[in-house]
Amino acid sequence: MSESDHMETFCNKTSGNFTRNSTYHTNLNALLSILSNQSSLDNYYNLTTGLASDTVHGMFLCTGDVNRTTCNFCVKTATTKISKNCTNSREAVIYYFDCMVRYSDRFFLSALETQPNTFLWSTDPTPTTFGKFRQSLADKMGEVIVRSSMLSSSRTPYYLMDMTRFDNLYDLESIVQCTPYLDPGNCTTCLKLALQEIIDCCSDKRWAMIWTRAGLRVKPAPPTREQINFNQSSLDNYYNLTTGLASDTVHGMFLCTGDVNRTTCNFCVKTATTKISKNCTNSREAVIYYFDCMVRYSDRFFLSALETQPNTFLWSTDPTPTTFGKFRQSLADKMGEVIVRSSMLSSSRTPYYLMDMTRFDNLYDLESIVQCTPYLDPGNCTTCLKLALQEIIDCCSDKRWAMIWTRAGLR
C-alpha cells in the first residue's frame, strides 16, 4: 500500500514559508530523518528540534494493524514526499493508507484538531440485504469508540479493532485509533466527530476510512468470508496460474509495481486477495487495484490479451506550478520516450518496468514510471502505455502527479 497508498498532502500556506538552507530547513531535514529511522522501531513517535523561531515539532503514526516493516516503508515514503510536495512550508501533514506524518513550527502535540482530514471509500454500495446498516454502523462504532478511549496505556494506545456479525448476513469490521498524545476525552471527541462524518458521507458504501490531524482511522467493512491466496507474492512481483477444468477453470494473476520490495508486494497482494473475495462475492471475474499491486481472476483466459478497461486513476490535488512552463508538452515528450525504452525490456528481471528522473529547465524533476504485465508482447505493451499516457494527459496534466492502473497492469 505503500508507496503505501498516498491519500492526500496538506501544505499549510497560512503558516508562512522558510528559506532554503536556513536553520529551520536544516532542523526540518534532521527531524524528518529521525522520524524515518524511528519508524523501524515504533508505530508512533514525536520529537522537537531547534530553538526559538527555528523550532520544528514533528510526529508520525502508523495504523495499529501494520507490522514494523510496513510502518517503516510507509513513513520513509511519507517523509520524502512531504518535503517534496510542501517545499518551503513551515507546516504540513501527509496521509497514507497506513501512516501519517506531520510537522509544524508551532507546538501541536496534545491539541485536538480535526481539520484538514481526508477520506477513502469503496465505490461498491452497501447491499440492500444488510437492512438498517446505517444504524448498526453508528451503534457498533459508537461502542468501539468508548472502549478504545480506555486504552491510553496499551501497547498501541487507543487502537481497537472489532469484528461483529450482524443478522448472520455480514461481518462489520470497525477500526479506530487516535494519536497517543491526546488525552482520553479529546480522543473520544475526535473519534465521534469522525464517525459522524463517515456516517454522513459513506454509510451507503461497502467500506470507508478517514484520517484527521488527530490521527484517526475509522474503517467499517462488511465482508463475506471467501478468500483467495497468492503465496507466490513473497517470491515474485508477478505470477499467473490456471486451476480447474472446463467450466470450473479459474485463471488468475497478480502484479506488483517494480519499485516495491518483496515484503511490500506480499503484504499488498495478501490484502488484495482477501478484499477481492470479500468485495466481489460470487463474481466469476474481478480485478482489484492498489497503489502497489493489482490482482485479477476470471473464468475466461485473459493472459496475453490487451484490455485497457476498466482502469482507475489517482492524482494530486496540488496543481502544477505555473513556473513549470510548457509542462503538458514536456510530460508527453518525456513519457513517450520512456514508453519506447520500456517496451525493449520484456526480458529484464522486472519486465517492461522503467523509472526515469529528468530535470527540466533547472526548475523541477519529472519522475516517470511505466510498467506492463509481463504476459503482453512488446507491441501491445507500447499500445497500452500510449493509451494510458493520453488519458493521464487529458485528465491530469495540470496536476502535480498522477497515476493510472488498467486491466493490462499499467502504472
Shape: globular
The number of helical elements comes to: 7
Number of strands: 17
- The helicity comes to 25-40%
- The CATH topology of the largest domain comes to Killer Toxin P4, Chain A
Largest beta sheet: strand ordering: 1-4-5-3-2
SSE class: alpha+beta
Mean pLDDT: 81
SSE order in H/E notation?
Answer: EHEEHEEEHEEHEEEHEEEHEEHE
Largest sheet entry: 5 strands, antiparallel
Comma- or semicolon-separated keywords:
411 residues, alpha+beta, Killer Toxin P4, Chain A, 5-stranded antiparallel sheet, 4-stranded antiparallel sheet, 7 helices, 24% strand, globular, signal, repeat, GNK2_sf
In short:
Keywords: Repeat, Signal. The protein is α+β, with helices and mostly antiparallel strands. The protein contains seven helices and 17 strands.
List strands and helices in order, with pairings.
Elements: E1 6-11, H1 23-38, E2 44-49, E3 56-62, H2 68-85, E4 91-96, E5 99-104, E6 118-121, H3 133-148, E7 160-166, E8 170-176, H4 184-202, E9 208-211, E10 238-243, E11 250-256, H5 262-279, E12 285-289, E13 293-298, E14 312-315, H6 327-342, E15 354-360, E16 364-370, H7 378-396, E17 402-405
Antiparallel strand pairs: 1-4, 2-3, 3-5, 4-5, 6-9, 7-8, 10-11, 11-13, 12-13, 14-17, 15-16
